[in-house]
Structure formats: C-alpha cells, structure tokens
Design brief:
267 residues, alpha/beta, Rossmann fold, six-stranded mixed sheet, 9 helices, 44% helix, binds adenosine-5'-triphosphate, nucleotide-binding, ATP-binding, ATP hydrolysis activity, translocase, ABC-type transporter activity
C-alpha cells in the first residue's frame, strides 16, 4: 500500500511561564526563564492512502497539536512529517481569520492553497451553499457561532479537494443535520482513497467512521492499530479515568509526564 503520512520521531516543545514578566524576560535572556513542556514526545506513526484514522486521548493529550503539525499550521520542534499530497485541516478554533468575512476567508484559504482568483470565483457558490451561511457570508467571522465557523471550515476544506483531510472536533459543534451531511461527504472522500484523520471525543463517531486509532496520552503514543483492537482498551481506560477525582487525574497526568521525562533521559 502507498503511504500517505509518515510521522517520524515528532516532538513539540512549548515554554511555560508562570507570569508575564517571565515571558518577557525570556525574550531578552532566552533559555533563562520558563519551563520546557513537551506536548508531544517522539511520535511515530504511518498512514496509508485510504486510511481513516481517529486520534483519541483525554484532554491535553496532544491530539490537536499533532493534527496541526501534520497540517503544517504548527511547526514541530524536532522529528519530521512526510506527506504524500496536500493536507487540509478543519478545526473550529483555527484556520479562519476572525476579522475577515466568510467570503474573504474562502478567498484567502484557496489562494494559499494555490488556486487562481478565477478558480476561486467558480468554487465559491458551492462552498457558500455547503456552509449554509446565507447572508452571513459577508459578515466578519468573529460574529459567527462555533457551529457556523465549523461549517465554513468544513465547506472550504472539502471543496479544495485535499489528499489528506484532517477534521479536528469540527463535527462536535453545530447541528446534527450538518454532521450527517459532512459524514456523507467524508464517505465520498473515503471511496476516493483519500486519507482522513478524525479528532473527536465522541466514541460513537470514532467507531462509526474510523478504521484505525491512534491513542495519545499526554504527548506519547499509548496505542496504534485497528479500531477493534484499540477502542475497547481506550474505553476501559476512560471508564476508570472518569471515576478519578480531579486530584487523582492531576496526579495521573504528572506521573505520566514524569515517566516520559525519565524515559527520555535514559535514551
Ligand atoms: N501554544 C501553546 N503553548 C503552551 N502549551 C500549549 C500550547 N498549545 C497546546 N499546549 C499544551 O499542549 C498540550 C496538548 O494540547 P492539545 O490541545 O494538543 O491536546 P488535545 O489532546 O487536543 O486536548 P483537547 O482534547 O482538550 O482538545 C496541553 O497540555 C496544552 O495545554
């Protein structure tokens, strides 16, 4: 099978500051202030053409960071991502310029993807129709609800016909009818042999749509394989995780991060 995504040893480091002064001082005296935090640590996985892969993991596990790195929106700190084709990301929180109108966002994103103005004019009516935004298309995106933003993001991303489509929580907001319509569109993509990555907290959506699952836990790969293999393990974990108190969850998280740090030091 032909590979479409290769993620090789990808890590993402952020600097965490305890206050604004620290943040500013770090600009003047780099490396002296702030604490290194790894949102992703040495991630490895590969996707084949036609794969539909779900990213799962509790809050803060690195699902969005990894999606953004694959889409080229966020740079990796180390490691490498190889893509066979063009990736397009749909997310509620990123990708749209809030000060521009919906129409201007269509033009901007399509121009960035290399379409000509003439091509964009021809694509625009379909995008607007799919997004169901009506006259709001000429209003600034900052006036949109999260559902409207996700509809616009979805409509743009699918109309540019990417080889790799990444959907980050975009179907969890907005109405059910649009989610159904989007799932239909995604089924078409799947038939065309395109690769899809699906980020969602909905176990039902994951099981309904994905064939493979990448389970992330605080920046590390906890499991990667067929949905039938990984999902039962993840659901079992989630059941016990949800029963934990806030304090126990924090302890679990800091222990996981500490173990990852120790492993890193041993290598
Ligand atoms: N710009 C940033 N600066 C500092 N830390 C960040 C930044 N972006 C993300 N993080 C941290 O990286 C970790 C992973 O975040 P990410 O959003 O990728 O997780 P997630 O699995 O998508 O979470 P959720 O399910 O809550 O969306 C979190 O601890 C988050 O606080």
């Amino acid at each position: 099978m032909e590979k479409s995504i290769i993620v090789e040893n990808v890590s993402k480091k952020y600097k965490l500051y305890s206050n604004t002064t620290e943040r500013l001082l770090d600009l003047v005296l780099p490396k002296s202030y702030g604490e290194d935090f790894y949102a992703l640590q040495k991630i490895n996985f590969e996707a084949e053409k036609g794969d539909v892969i779900g990213f799962v993991g509790v809050n803060g596990s690195g699902k969005s960071t990894l999606s953004n790195i694959i889409a080229g929106i966020v740079p990796e700190t180390s490691g490498k991502v190889y893509l066979n084709g063009q990736a397009s990301l749909i997310a509620v929180s990123s990708g749209l310029n809030k000060d521009l109108t919906g129409r201007d966002n269509i033009e901007l994103k399509c121009l960035m993807l290399g379409f000509s103005k003439q091509e964009i004019k021809a694509m625009e009516p379909d995008i607007i129709e799919f997004a169901e935004l009506g006259k709001f298309i000429d209003q600034p995106v900052k006036s949109y609800s999260s559902g409207m933003k996700s509809r616009l993001g979805f409509a743009i991303s699918v109309s540019v016909d990417p080889d790799i489509l990444i959907i980050d929580e975009a179907l969890s907001v907005g109405d059910k009818a649009f989610a159904e319509k989007s799932l239909e569109k995604m089924k078409e993509f799947k038939k065309m042999g395109k690769t899809m990555i699906f980020v969602s907290h909905s176990i039902g959506q994951m099981k309904k749509f994905c064939e493979k699952i990448l389970w992330l836990e605080y920046g590390r790969v906890k499991g990667f394989g067929a949905v039938e293999e990984i999902m039962p393990k993840y659901e079992k974990f989630l059941k016990s995780f949800k029963k934990m108190s806030k304090k126990e969850k924090q302890k679990y998280r800091s222990e996981s991060l500490e173990n990852a740090r120790k492993e890193e030091l041993l290598q």
